[in-house]
What we know:
heterodimer; A: Chloramphenicol Acetyltransferase; 7-stranded mixed β-sheet; B: alpha/beta; FAD/NAD(P)-binding domain; 3 domains
Amino acid sequence: MGEHLxxxxxxxxxxxxxxxxxxxxxVGDLVREDAVLAxxxxxxxxxxxxxxxxxxxxxxGADIGDVVAIGSPLIRLKVExxxxxxxxxxxxxxxxEPPARTGEIEAQADGxxxxxxxxxxxxxxxxxxxxxxxKPHAPAARMHRAPVTRAEGERPVASPAVRLRARxxxxxLRQVPGSGxxxxxxxxxxxAFFTHGRQVAKTPGLAQNTSVEHIKVVGLRRKxxxxxAIAKSHIPHITYVEEVDVxxxxxxxxALNANKRADRPKLTLLPFLMRAMVRAIAEQPHLNSVYxxxxxxxxxxxxxxxxxxxxTGSGLMVPVVKHAEARDLWECAAELxxxxxxxxxxxxTREELGGSTITITSLGAMGGIVTTPVINYPEVAIIxxxxxxxxxxxxxxxxIPRKIMNLSSSFDHRIIDGxxxxxxxxxxxxxxxxxxxxxxxx
Amino acid sequence: MxxxxxxxxxxxxxxxGYVCAIRAGQLGLDTVIVDPGKPGGTxxxxxxxxxxxxxxxAEEYDRIAHLAHGRNPLGITAAKPExxxxxxxxxxxxxxxxxxxxxxxxxxxxxVKIVQGHARFRDGKTVEVETExxxxxxxxxxxxxATGSAPVELPNLPFGGPVISSTDALSLTSVPERLVVVGGxxxxxxxxxxxxxxxxxxxxxxxxxRILPQYDAELTxxxxxxxxxxxxxxxTGTKAKGLAKAGxxxxxxxxxxxxxxxxxxxxxxxxxxxxxxxxxxxDELVLDMDGPFIxxxxxxxxxxxxxxxxxxxxxxxxxxxxxxxxxxxxAEIVAGHxxxxxxxxxxxxxFTDPEIVTVGLAPxxxxxxxxxxxxxxxPFSANGRAMTxxxxxxxxxxxxxxDNHLVLGIQAVGQGISELAAAFSLALEMGARLEDIAxxxxxxxxxxxxxxxxxxxxxxxxxxI
Lengths: 442, 465
């Protein structure tokens, strides 16, 4: 029997540490090669740590929410074969070795056993770190304990302590699925029933709920929280809302969708907005900037990299359409679709999730009348799209129905004056209301 | 005499009643317990405890007598022992006395009021007690009937003269030369064996075809073998007809109808126990009955509101520990806790030689429930500790479901294995599987290892056989 130490792998360029967001195993679990052990998260992506070997989990080196330095011990596995577990024998040779990219392993022994290169190679191949979306918490360890269903009328198996607890809580154990051996109902099963299964229990009428659930803010949620706090504390926002008549734009969009080539993506409003922004930025390039407030430098970019705030299952992500200025309407639409899909399925890379210079935020059909968007720090402008509605508009003699949509946009008032912000939004409004101007030089 | 009003009245201070009263007192219920005798009931005064004292004395005597007999493999010689049974009985009475005052002390500590005397219902809420100082009226919100059981008398063999009950047998001052035991159940065999070991010539008369008929034949075989070795004549399929006219001898009728007279100085009748349902005013109540027993539900409630019944008066198995558990539960129910009878296992121990322990379902009982079963049986002849204490007869047997290995029952027969009842019961209550028992380290060298080995055997992974 030997021991394998798995260290926090290098999950991305220049990252010194990553946050542990999920354990898929617990001490004592048997794991197979390639089984996912843990998920860690960097600034932008979640990465799964697969097991390079079959073994039994002996030790877990961090708690969920801990920030772990790359190369720190993460998991110790008991494995078949040689290598005995005198841990802490810091292998001095290690420094000389080139750092293995993924799931670095050491067979620890008194005389540090070097893993043959071939093996390292194979492991590197078989266990690449895979960026994934945050999954609903269904640790692998639970899987083999799927509740056993009892035959009708069969007495539930449970210890006297479990029976008493259920009795006092007024729970009929026949309704509680047992996850233990032979379908035994454990205290954990009761806990689960208390939290999830209560709906099927009774208690008619209204009751006070005095429970408080303590949820650790970890992973993506923590990143979002930190980022929002920085954005709001550093940036004095100015928000400007304007009404845009998109009747003509919608007619154009419908016509293009109706007549498009089969291989082209269906157009939404956003590609038009992106193209309009590229136009407006050409006239006001300082809106397409990243402000390093510590250094006191505004990095005004030539390329327009449009961040698209996207709601995913685990929270807000901002995939980036790079070089919108070099993409036509269709390319913008295609790239937008691809990135939104990647973000939602958790497959967006770190590169795709960073590097924006200006951001669009849209709540789509739910968009509301007005929002006060928070700037995607350290950018200086964000354009918010509100819901499009048909409203009566007075044309001088009568009310006519027009498709009206608001743009709620925020700017970093340190860099952008209110006048400039208004000019920028008015320019976009003009372009969207007369969409031909997006495509044709005036 | 001033009437007493209380929250809970317990009638009978046997193991069920006194446990109920102690728990009720601990829970702050205003509790009164009534009994004409000393606290502890049959179990403590004329049952479990005194019989175990007598069995122990008989074993000690037998051991020395055996060594005195001559050659033995241990190389020990001893002088022929003598027994002064009156002194043995006095020692036994001392133990009983200590326990009596122990129970009284526990009741007082729990602030339970003890009233000595015969209780009789006037109505569902009122009981009158004839005490030494006069009639005491007790009004109670809740009443627990814990009147217990008494030895069954045969109409053709009424107690008196040479015909004695188990109670009388525990107070004999000399060992009878010839003892006839009518009834080959556990009480008759425990006492018959004890007296045989102390030198009596014992004959056991059993109407059914074998002794201890509630157990399977495999389980009782080591006991039958030991009875034979002790020189106890066992007559199965034989009915006791009555005393011969001359007295001192018992007329019995064999299966083939032939009659025979058995000489006996004492005739011990142990044909069972009946619930005590007379003498305390059952007629004043409207209780549903279950045969001779009081019908109760899973909360020990009778058909009358506020009246509970526990222990032997409520039916089989008539065992002290069942009554205690019922008593404890009932007190908690009266105190407003949510409780229901959900015990999986009521262990039964037979202090014969060797002892028998059973919990849960026997193999046949398990099969009758329609599940497929697995059996694992491990003999003490392959157990080191059993060998070193010269008790190789017997085995441990585990019955489990074939599909999920859930343990359904455990039976064992062997010397000194009554103490394994704890492990057996725990396994059943906790819902153990064969793997749980097989995977638990059992201390070596102990007889408990046979339990682990039986589980291993059921799994087809036995090590020591």
